[in-house]
Structures are given as structure tokens and as C-alpha cells.
Amino acid sequence: MNHVSLIGRLTADPQVSYTASQMAVAKFTLAIDRISKDGKKDADFIRIVVFGKQAENCEKFLAKGRMAGIAGHIQTGSYKDKDGKTVYTTDVIADRVDFLEWPERNEPPKAKPIEPEEDQFGFQALNADIPF
């Protein structure tokens, strides 16, 4: 069984990129508190990867310091760095992201909203996927 559930705070804003097929990929790190064996408070820093529409929502609604809940699975991999050394990676691939904190009402939005375009007849273009 490979299932992970985490709650923590983002160490930085999510970094979003797009694949060749235009799928969004968000990457960020969660700081997760834990108590060590000697009773001291410590933290683990876990890399999270999110795909698709959920990644776009992470870019809009998550920011450094905000708390998020993650459900997903662990994935390991490796690559060669610029010196030819093999670097091993361990990431949590998020199947679900819960936004546990929201911005204050007076906080400005992270991104400028997209203005709807009008056609030659004055109708606004629909920018949503219609499920029918």
C-alpha cells in the first residue's frame, strides 16, 4: 500500500510549469512538524507535486506559510546532475490538495483576473469547460 496523508505549511509559493501537452504541474515543499525522541520540536520538509487543474488551483490559492492538507502517494526517481552524479529523489504525488487556510478578505489576489472578451455582437466569450 502506498498512501500518504500530510498537513503542513508551504515553505514558498508553488512553482507552476506546463508540460508539452499544456498540463499544469505545481511543485512546492511542505514543512511538517514532528516531535523528536528527546521531546524537541522538529520539522520534515516534503516535496509535493500536483498535476492538472488542481495544480492551477494551487497556484491561485496557496502561498508561502499557508496550511494545506495533502493526500497522495510516494514516488521515487533519479537523474544525473551537471557533474554526472546520480541524484535520487523522493516526492509525494498529490491526488488531493485541501486548502486549510484562506487569504484575508482585504489581501489582494495573487493573479489579475482575466477580462472576458466580447465578440462582434457584444456577447462575452465563455471561458469554462461545459460538462455536457
Comma- or semicolon-separated keywords:
single chain; 132 residues; mainly beta; OB fold (Dihydrolipoamide Acetyltransferase, E2P); five-stranded mixed barrel; globular
Descriptive notes:
The protein has 132 residues and is mainly beta. The chain has a single domain, classed as OB fold (Dihydrolipoamide Acetyltransferase, E2P). 7% of the residues lie in helices and 47% in strands. It is built from one helix and six strands; from the N terminus they run ββββαββ. Strands 1-3-4-6-5 form a five-stranded mixed β-barrel. The longest helix has 9 residues, at 53-61. The model has no long low-confidence stretch (mean pLDDT 85).
Tell me how many strands there are: 6
The gross shape turns out to be: globular
The termini sit apart by 36 Å
| Tally of alpha and pi helices | 1
The topology string of helices and strands comes to EEEEHEE
CATH superfamily: Nucleic acid-binding proteins
The fold-level CATH name is: OB fold (Dihydrolipoamide Acetyltransferase, E2P)
Radius of gyration, taken over Cα atoms and rounded to an integer in Å: 19 Å
CATH class: Mainly Beta
Question: What order do the strands of the largest sheet run in, or round the barrel if closed?
Answer: 1-3-4-6-5
Largest sheet: 5 strands, mixed, barrel
Helix content: under 10%
Low-confidence stretches: none
Named at the architecture level, the CATH assignment is Beta Barrel
**Backbone structural class:** mainly beta
Strand content: over 45%
Query: Kindly state the mean pLDDT as a whole number?
Result: 85
**Overall tally of structural domains:** 1
